Amino acid sequence: xxxxxxxxxxAMAIAFRSYYAFGMGRPLTTSSGQPVAAVFGTAMFMHKLLxxxxxxxxxxxxxxxxxxxxHQMYPQYKANRSAMPEDLVAQLPLLxxxxxxxxCPLLSIPGFEADDLIGSMARQWGTPDLQVYIVxxxxxxxxxxxDHTFLYQPKKGEDAAIIDRGGVAAKFxxxxxxxxxxxxxxxxxxxxxxxxxxxxxxxxxxLIAEYGSLERILENIPLINNKKMREALxxxxxxxxxxxxxxxxRTDIELPVTL
Length: 259
Hints:
This protein is of the alpha/beta class and 259 residues long. The chain has helices spanning 11-22, 37-53, 69-73, 86-89, 92-101, 114-125, 165-172, 179-186, 201-211, 214-219, 227-247, and strands at residues 4-10, 57-61, 106-107, 130-135, 149-155, 158-163.
């Protein structure tokens, strides 16, 4: 049986990337003054993706602009982000029309992020006979990588990077299954996820390598020789557990479409 390929596109990740690639410097507008940098860049990216990769299936997931379950869990979630630029807000209706023009499902579910929709599709649909490619630059998706799920990361001025298990190990020094615990320790400044204050990437990598999981790390705090690291974990235990919940991509959402 021929292996088929499903591409899951993180809509706003691509739109933001296109906005900053084409909208900086002299703004790109129509003759009437309508900003179109994000629309133009997204259209170019999608055309390149479809003509070069020729996916068997394509689904686009987008965020809702309302709070999600993560905001209910931690009101400061993403609170450090600036408001969306007005000229990008003005392009959202055009971007929606563009994505719909590709004739594939365009999904959003109130209360969830696009990440959770993509995670659920990847886990529920991916099989050895159906490879899944997650189209996004977001490193959080590395937690979903397995033998038939890959991260397709766009790169400026070069071909996209295909991240497999080896790519995850190169980035985090751990397996995809351990990425959640690594992120729980490090935190994520872009999403205002606190992590464990005082634990950086290097320290998190060492802890995961030695103990295997956040749970085992917390169980063995008294045995950790490094005093600063031990104190950081004692003081930041609850933040680490909260951060683990925040960085975990949901994979169990009931999906409104099937392949």
